[in-house]
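S1.2 Input.
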Amino acid sequence: MDATATEGAHPPLMLSSGFLPAATLLESLILVSHDVASIEKAPFLQRKNISAMIRRICLLSSLFEEIKEQVQKQPLPPSSVLCLTELYSVIRRAKILIESSVQGSLLWNLMQTESISNQFHTLVKEMARALDILPLSLLDLTADTKEQVELLHKQATRAQLYVDHVEAQTRDHLIQAAVTNKEGSRKSKGFVDLVRVRDSLSSIGVNSPEQIAQEVSKLEAEAEKQAGTGGLVVVSNINSLISLISMSKSSVEENSTAHVDLKKRKLPTSNRQDQSFSSFMAMSVPAEFRCPILLDLMNDPVIVASGHTYDRSSIAQWINSGHHTCPKSGQRLIHMALIPNYALRSLIQQWCQENMIPTASEVERSSSKRRSSETAVDHISVTKAAADAVKMTAEFLVGKLAMGSQDIQRQAAYELRLLAKTGMDNRSIIAEAGAIPFLVTLLGSPDSRIQENAVTALLNLSIHENNKMLIMAAGAIDSIVEVLQSGSTMEAKENAAATIFSLSIIGEHKAIIGAHPRVIPALVRLLGEGTAAGKRDAATALFNLALFNANRGKVILSGAVPLLIELLTDDKAGITDDALAVLSLLLGCAQGLEEIQRSRDLVPLLIDLLRFGSSRGKENAITLLLGLCKDGGEEVAPRLLMNPYSIPSLQRLTADGSLKARRKADALLRILNRCCF
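S1.3 Output.
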């Protein structure tokens, strides 16, 4: 069948239907993944890009193994077959690129370091693009595999181009040396520093006359290949490199002969520094010093609740993305604290010193000092006299909260509410004065003004990070929920919802607050009955709580989905973007998908939002449409194709949308292409 082309750079509406059977495709994926994982020769160039690519493919290999078992029981969704086909193309090209980088001419690869880095980056982006259309919720996978694939998808989506600056510098030096050598041959002038050339060659793994001979042979083969394609300038440059390394052969021979003697005595400091990079490239980092997530040397090892150690940055990213299990063991983490592993850090630093590997400790100390300085400036933003005045005022008002009459309590709560609104310093001072427990007690006051002032004061205080923990420790959730459910005024209910949003910013609080049986139903009720401001407060609080996977089912069971869909067309409420954001999160669980699929009005609404919505609204609308097509494509995709505005809207989004929207619009168009058959 012929493909139907579209204008410009947009993807075609019809693609070739030449897909392999699912079982054959998975067998091919597993084989090519194992081939990549079994590449044993350690690379001297593109080390970080190659190790990251191999790690990603190894993670995908476990995914393929599990899907293979599923295929024997039931057919795969169409979007899964499309995703796997694209992944096969990516992995096959990655294998060729890695083998070329490892087995090809080191000098030729060094000359192309930016180009090869770009090729790795392109493959990572294509991998992310393929995973965009993988319907994880429809695949019978273990929780650990799902989490690993989700993390891989996020990392690949955010991956930045990496070019090793040391490789670039080495390349530039050798090019300059080759030019100087060529001029010297032609004009009997020009001086080449052969010792520096020798060290540069050593840094990329060319340390002996035999290795130089191999490089010359590989460069000559490359020159013949380039000559056949008309690359005369490239051939000339390759010949210059051959001339340079041939001339440096004598220096390498001398260095090779003296190598044993040099090992017997301590090298001068300057020599050790020159060879630090080559030493790092030549050796393998011990497994216990590598982060289990990124497989790179750990800079800041920390222990999680399961007892396993990870690099702080990688495990923090894992936890912040909503995961609450140990990536290595799959064990649920009972707390999210990251405890420094000082013993391992000391061993890593010792190993780095022994092997002349530069560490990041000095940079970290400098950064830490700078952060401490900035924090100090932030917390001493008022003069000492002003701070003392605030402290006296706060202590006076807290005394009135504790001992005053109802009228005095009302006024004191109001004054604290205002004082807590005016800066981080004031919020800290008020908490230190002991106001929080008394304000929590006043939430149960029968006086509507006292209750409203108390909950609003707690909302203002909760903006300070440490105060969030103090409010939770004071057992405030029961009282805040009571105000949310039965508050005397609508403003009190709204501010109670806003306080829940603020407290749930901390990861572990999402689980604690969501576990309260009345919190989510009360927020959903406010979503339906509140004012425009109340609905917005309820939606943002629900969004925060739904970031924790276990809370999503509770939000759905409380009846939030129909209300959220209804709010998409409620211009008076004006919370279309907030409602879309919550729906996008709820789509990520099976209950949410089933509930959202029941709405017959949602798809045309989402298409209208693609045309007329805000930038954030378009991102969430395309997220919903993509999710619906991935997980229920047989029903939703035809409805999309029948709507005359859907394809033009998606094509506009691939050209004019945000980066996230463009990627998802492209993925949805690919699924629709597949559904045309």
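S1.4 Remarks. Strands lie at 301-303, 309-311, 339-340.
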